[in-house]
Design goal:
With 196 residues, this protein is an alpha/beta fold. Helix content is 41%, strand content 17%.
Length: 196
């Protein structure tokens, strides 16, 4: 699959939503963002939680609906993880989570388990999201400018919104990330508590 370099896209996401909560899917995505921007208190790292980040982000978006300091709750997912938690697409649409943005970084593979192909190429995620009641959804061309435009759209429009970004399967060398999930959760909660 032709796509963008995932660490570069992750940096764009962080820059666009620098002061908003970002829920990150597991494995390489977390480690690559840590390499790009370092640990940040507004990032919730979902370790070993494949298929769950969208549901977590949905709960946050609904729970933070009345917080003016929080414009968006951003979920960064992979295509395989979205397929595993597919039912969350219908729940998100039904609950009309206006602050939710789902960014699907689609490399067509389960990189964490050896690079086996996903079936995401057979699924029109944008059409599925719209059919489930999402406000908007779009596929992005593999260019930095197209990603920037889509992220700006997601920043400004009411959700729920889905943006599918093609990324390549390159896996840069990263350090292990062995933080305690409880500590990570408390750090994220403390950041949220400061934004009441």
């Amino acid at each position: 699959m032709a796509g963008l370099y995932r660490p570069t896209v992750l940096r764009q996401i962080d820059e666009t939503f620098a002061e908003q909560p970002i829920v990150l899917t597991l494995g390489g995505t977390i480690r690559e963002l840590l390499n790009e921007v370092g640990p940040k208190p507004n990032h919730l790292y979902c370790l070993d939680a494949m298929g769950q980040p969208l549901a977590i982000g949905l709960g946050l978006a609904l729970g933070l609906a009345d917080r003016p300091a929080i414009d968006k709750v951003v979920v960064v997912e992979g295509d395989g993880s979205v397929l595993m938690g597919f039912s969350a697409l219908t729940t998100t649409g039904a609950l009309e989570a206006t602050k939710l943005v789902l960014l699907v970084l689609d490399n067509g593979a389960y990189l964490a388990t050896g690079g086996q192909p996903t079936l995401a190429s057979r699924v029109d995620l944008a059409s599925v999201a719209r059919a489930c009641g999402w406000t908007g959804a779009r596929d992005v061309a593999p260019s930095a400018a197209a990603v920037a435009e889509a992220l700006a759209w997601a920043r400004e429009c009411p959700g729920p919104l889905l943006v599918r970004v093609p990324v390549d399967t390159a896996q840069p060398r990263t350090d292990y990330f062995l933080e305690d999930p409880v500590v990570l959760g408390h750090r994220f909660q403390a950041w949220l508590d400061e934004r009441r």
